[in-house]
């Protein structure tokens, strides 16, 4: 049977026999699930072959432990990587459906908050593309990141329900489950410590295959779901106490019910610690089980397994692995600590002090008594080996998870060059002095399969026509288009692709946001979590100042701009929610202003997620990367924009530094203080007042907010924002405003020469190949994991 007919046959069989639907009764979701199952079938053989090759060759495996995997939609990734795009499109067309409608029907699996979770998803895809044996371990949250809507401009959160529909990608592994305990006590038996938890839940495994480019290799994403050890209390049920009878089940399931809607602050919730231990403990047991099925000598574990802790969330892995090796497998404590240290590695993703997890000793002792004791033993052992007065794992009654992860790791890495340097100078200064070889840098990256090939088909087609498809898994090949930037015909084609993407976005904005924008205006986009350090308020302040300037001279030659914002604020982060309200309030005034709205619009589509990012990034001209220097560990959105030919206006922060080096300073709009200058500026007590005094535009913009220009004349509405900015202004919005304004006017001037702008945009694409997550993963493999790619 020809390939297309076989695929169609498989799809119809799934619709009929897996879903039990007749074609005439099937709706788009039925078709989407049937298509997913037909595609999933094609993953299974490479998946088995990969597992077999790993096992037979005795190869080392990488285990990526992460609280978050922000995978988004999976169908398109799978179709693209398996080379089924044309077949799937034709098949759907024959059935009277459009593939893009079917793809858009998939829920966006938001098992993560932001960059950290999305990075984990890009890494899994790159590991499979490279053919490095790996398992991603995480939590199968019933409810991912909340849905955001706006009511009168304010953020409203509602639960996300991606699992309401069948999740076509996963395989439930009823044979793979582990008991995970909490609480209880520790007793000694036969010279061994035995932990006797007083609460136990079952961790049940669900596997999703992750297939790499060209379908040569597939790894596993294994997510754990919590189940009760006893389903319900029959005696109570028979007495008619139905709710009480179901209590064990409810309590257990609570552990994997929701993703903490928290980006970079530590919520400090007991339930969160339970979640962390739950998935870490289950994953480690699974790793030891797999190791034990292939090898005997546990001391060889570091040769066969590299475990990566994605931030401190799984940092309890240190003491838990020691406990498993020492208490349960009889290895000496010293050897158990050394074996764990040689196996574990830790990635730090933030220097924000409030985001470095600390758990109170009391809570630790109550929930994980044996672990608390082991943390003290680890601390003692470290003190003995490396005498230091300043390094300690427990401080003021808190266990410091960053320090614990560091001490228990073979390698500790930062996620951009600047971030790694700052780690050495600040949070881990003392530990770095004791272990100067331990900290390494692995600058983040993004997968080009999703972020260029799938998200930007017009650009991909253009590239394919010129340089083929080699760039898809060898992104440095984008350099080959650099000589073509001086070819006017190619520039025009590149410009046409961007223009078409913008026109598509304009249509979408008209249909969904009820706002009309000119596709020839500059599309200026800031999409990321809402956080003071990311400074969405600097951006909106500049919009206000620009609006005022246009009013002053409405006949001047302004460069039309559409400012687009996207992002969620943690529900408990009041100030961030005020920023959202301010942006929406400013948008309302500006967009209905008859004098200025043809030059300046502000749009904030709600519920920013991976799918919306895929839509916005290819249509962007200007990427806003304006964090206070020293605060953004890396950023990865900045990379997606540069690859898709958006120019950056940005500070010297995170990976912006490397992006600017790559694309050339003349193709990047730099502004603002350096990390060092930020520290010095903060020492000036009235820095904000000084900045406001020196810049009438800034003073006037703040006055407009204060006087109620965006709050129907009410002076109190945004008082918290104005007071903060004119007072403490910790993130130095005012101090960076003047230079930001200057940079934005440079952007305006540059955008007016469209041809020169396109040349710069093309150079951004041509020179950003290094930003592939394939390069990042190869760095981890060489420097941290000592793992090799396996070829089937
Ligand atoms: C983020 C950082 O804020 C980003 O700068 C970085 O690019 C990504 O991680 C990936 O390294 N981050 C996050 O999303 N959540 C945290 N809790 C901490 C950092």
From TrEMBL:
Per its Swiss-Prot or TrEMBL entry, what cofactor is needed? pyridoxal 5'-phosphate
UniProt GO MF annotations: glycogen phosphorylase activity; pyridoxal phosphate binding
Query: Example GO biological process term?
Result: glycogen catabolic process
Keyword Transferase among record annotations: yes
Enzyme class, first EC level, given as a word: transferase
InterPro entries, A to Z: Glycg_phsphrylas (IPR011833), Glyco_trans_35 (IPR000811), Pyridoxal_P_attach_site (IPR035090)
Entry EC no(s):
2.4.1.1
Where does the source fall among the domains of life?
Answer: Bacteria
Q: Which GO terms of the cellular component aspect does the record hold?
A: cytoplasm
Which transformation does this protein catalyse, written as a reaction? [(1->4)-alpha-D-glucosyl](n) + phosphate = [(1->4)-alpha-D-glucosyl](n-1) + alpha-D-glucose 1-phosphate
N6-(pyridoxal phosphate)lysine: modified positions: 640
Which UniProt keywords are given for this protein, alphabetically ordered?
A: Allosteric enzyme, Carbohydrate metabolism, Glycosyltransferase, Pyridoxal phosphate, Transferase
What does the sequence similarity comment in the record state about its family?
Answer: Belongs to the glycogen phosphorylase family.
Known function: Allosteric enzyme that catalyzes the rate-limiting step in glycogen catabolism, the phosphorolytic cleavage of glycogen to produce glucose-1-phosphate, and plays a central role in maintaining cellular and organismal glucose homeostasis. Phosphorylase is an important allosteric enzyme in carbohydrate metabolism. Enzymes from different sources differ in their regulatory mechanisms and in their natural substrates. However, all known phosphorylases share catalytic and structural properties.
Read off the PANTHER family from this record. GLYCOGEN PHOSPHORYLASE, GLYCOGEN PHOSPHORYLASE, LIVER FORM
**In its UniProt entry, what is this protein called?**
Alpha-1,4 glucan phosphorylase
Q: What organism does this protein naturally occur in?
A: Mesobaculum littorinae
């Amino acid at each position: 049977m020809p390939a297309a007919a076989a695929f169609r046959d498989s799809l119809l069989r799934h619709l009929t026999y897996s879903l039990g639907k007749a074609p005439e009764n099937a709706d788009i979701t039925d078709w989407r699930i049937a298509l997913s199952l037909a595609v999933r079938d094609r993953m299974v053989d490479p998946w088995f072959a990969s597992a077999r090759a790993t096992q037979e060759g005795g190869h080392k495996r990488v285990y990526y432990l992460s609280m978050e995997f922000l995978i988004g939609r999976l169908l398109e990734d799978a179709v693209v990587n398996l080379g089924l795009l044309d077949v799937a499109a034709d098949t759907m067309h024959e059935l009277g459906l459009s593939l893009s409608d079917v793809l858009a029907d998939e829920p966006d699996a938001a098992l993560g908050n932001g960059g950290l979770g999305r990075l984990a998803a890009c890494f899994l895809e790159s590991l499979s593309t490279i053919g490095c044996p790996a398992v991603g371990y995480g939590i199968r949250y019933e409810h991912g990141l909340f849905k955001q809507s706006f009511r009168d401009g304010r953020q409203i959160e509602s639960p996300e329900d991606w699992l309401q529909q069948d999740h076509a990608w996963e395989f439930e592994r009823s044979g793979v489950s582990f008991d995970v305990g909490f609480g209880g006590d520790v007793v000694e038996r036969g010279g061994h410590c035995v932990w006797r938890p007083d609460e136990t839940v079952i961790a049940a495994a669900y596997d999703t295959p992750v297939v790499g480019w060209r379908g040569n290799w597939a790894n596993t994403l294994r997510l754990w779901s919590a189940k009760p050890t006893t389903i319900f209390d029959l005696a109570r049920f028979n007495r008619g106490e139905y709710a009480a009878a179901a209590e064990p089940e409810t309590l257990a399931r609570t552990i994997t019910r929701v993703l903490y809607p928290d980006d970079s602050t530590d919520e400090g919730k007991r339930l969160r610690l339970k979640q962390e231990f739950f998935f870490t403990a289950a994953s480690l047991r699974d790793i030891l089980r797999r190791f034990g099925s292939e090898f005997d000598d546990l001391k060889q574990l570091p040769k066969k397994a590299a475990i990566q802790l994605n931030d401190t969330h799984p940092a309890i892995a240190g003491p838990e692995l020691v406990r498993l090796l020492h208490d349960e497998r009889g290895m000496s404590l010293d050897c158990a600590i050394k074996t764990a240290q040689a196996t574990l590695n830790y990635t730090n993703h933030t220097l924000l002090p409030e985001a470095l997890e600390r758990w109170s000793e009391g809570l630790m002792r109550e929930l994980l008594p044996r672990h608390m004791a082991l943390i003290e033993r680890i601390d003692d052992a470290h003190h003995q080996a490396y005498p230091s007065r300043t390094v300690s794992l427990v401080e003021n009654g808190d266990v410091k998870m960053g320090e614990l992860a560091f001490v228990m790791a073979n390698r500790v890495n930062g996620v951009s060059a600047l971030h790694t340097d700052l780690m050495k100078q600040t949070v881990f200064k003392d530990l770095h002095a004791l272990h100067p070889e331990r900290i390494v840098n692995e600058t983040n990256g993004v997968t080009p399969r999703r972020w260029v090939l799938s998200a930007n088909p017009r650009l991909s087609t253009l590239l394919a026509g010129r340089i083929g498809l080699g760039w898809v898994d060898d992104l440095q090949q984008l350099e080959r288009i650099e000589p073509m930037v001086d070819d006017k015909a190619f520039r025009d084609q590149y410009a046409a692709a961007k223009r078409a993407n913008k026109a598509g976005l304009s249509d979408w904005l008209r249909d969904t946001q009820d706002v009309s924008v000119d596709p020839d205006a500059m599309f200026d986009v800031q999409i990321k979590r809402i956080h003071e350090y990311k400074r969405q308020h600097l951006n909106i302040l500049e919009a206000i100042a620009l609006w005022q300037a246009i009013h002053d001279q409405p006949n001047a030659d302004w460069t039309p701009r559409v400012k687009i914002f996207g992002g969620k604020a943690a529900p408990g982060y009041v100030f961030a929610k005020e920023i959202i309200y301010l942006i929406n309030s400013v948008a309302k005034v500006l967009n209905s202003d008859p004098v200025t709205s043809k030059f300046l619009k502000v749009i904030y589509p709600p519920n920013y997620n991976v799918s919306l990012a895929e839509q916005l990034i290819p249509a962007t001209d200007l990427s806003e990367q304006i964090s206070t220097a020293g605060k953004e560990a890396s950023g990865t959105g900045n990379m997606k924009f540069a690859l898709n030919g958006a120019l950056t206006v940005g500070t010297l922060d995170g990976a912006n530094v490397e992006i600017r080096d790559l694309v050339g300073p003349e193709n990047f709009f730099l502004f603002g203080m350096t990390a060092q200058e930020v520290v010095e500026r903060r020492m000036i007590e009235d820095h904000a007042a000084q900045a406001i005094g020196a810049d009438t535009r800034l003073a006037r913009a703040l006055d407009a907010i204060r006087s109620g220009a965006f709050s129907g004349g009410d002076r109190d509405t945004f008082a918290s924002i104005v007071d903060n900015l004119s007072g403490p202004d910790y993130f130095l919005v005012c101090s960076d405003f003047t230079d930001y304004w200057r940079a934005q006017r440079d952007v305006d001037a540059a955008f007016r020469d469209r041809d020169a702008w396109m040349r710069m945009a093309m150079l951004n694409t041509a020179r950003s190949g290094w930003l592939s997550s394939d390069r990042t993963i190869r760095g981890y493999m060489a420097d941290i994991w000592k793992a090799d790619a396996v070829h089937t």
